[in-house]
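Handout, section B. The chain below has 115 residues.
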Amino acid sequence: QVQLVESGGGLVQAGGSLRLSCAVSGNIFGISFMGWYRQVPGKQRELAAQITIGGNTNYADSVKGRFTISRDNAKNTMYLQMNSLKPEDTAVYYCNALIFGSAYWGQGTQVTVSS
């Protein structure tokens, strides 16, 4: 069984920063991709940033230059450093892992950016 647990969300003013963490445990052999998705009420969940097992990264246009995704393989933890936050970044952020074609999700962490 695979578990993903997010932490680090909260309330921040526009222009501020937050760092999200995603701790992964269980049978994680075979992870190919990990990523951060976000969702606001009434809208589809969207990809914010993604990182491959090899360390290649991909970002949504809306977060490029402001967010940085990274992994610490020794700690089985993924991070999302979010800088220059905007009110439109307000969402529930979910950690995702793709393992042998199956997608696993965390419970989500709320990020609220006030103007």
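Note. The CA atoms of residues 10 and 111 lie 5 Å apart. Compare this with the example in section A.
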